[in-house]
Amino acid sequence: MREKIAADLKTAMKAGERAKVDALRLINAALKDKDIEARGAGKTLSGDDELALLQKMIKSRQESLEIYEKAGREDLA
């Protein structure tokens, strides 16, 4: 999965897709943080762990979107 993210990041950078680049960098950073946390506990990050992290990030963004829309803050959504 990380290889796909890296390839997509490279493609987005070449295409000048700023929003996509920012999102992929955020995902990369979260994966690296989780990987460091797992190594500190003597574990390795599995594909299921990576998927769970991505699902958590998606859920968080969706909840934020709903909150901003309800508050009338479309600029932040």
Which helices and strands occur, and which strands form pairs?
Elements: H1 2-15, H2 18-40, H3 47-70
Helix pairs in contact: 1-2, 2-3
Kindly describe this structure:
With 77 residues, the chain is an all-alpha fold. It has one domain: Hypothetical Protein Yqey, Chain: A, domain1 (Orthogonal Bundle). The chain is built from three helices and no strands. α1 packs antiparallel against α2 and α2 packs across α3. The radius of gyration is 15 Å and the shape is flat.
Quick structural summary:
The protein is mostly helical and 77 residues long. It contains three helices and no strands.
Keywords:
Hypothetical Protein Yqey, Chain: A, domain1; single chain; mainly alpha; flat; 3 helices; 0% strand
Could you tell me the number of beta strands? 0
Low-confidence stretches at least 5 residues in length (pLDDT < 50)? none
How much is the average pLDDT? 92
Structural Rg: 15 Å
Our count of domains comes out at 1
Give the ordered list of helices and strands.
HHH
Percent in strands: under 5%
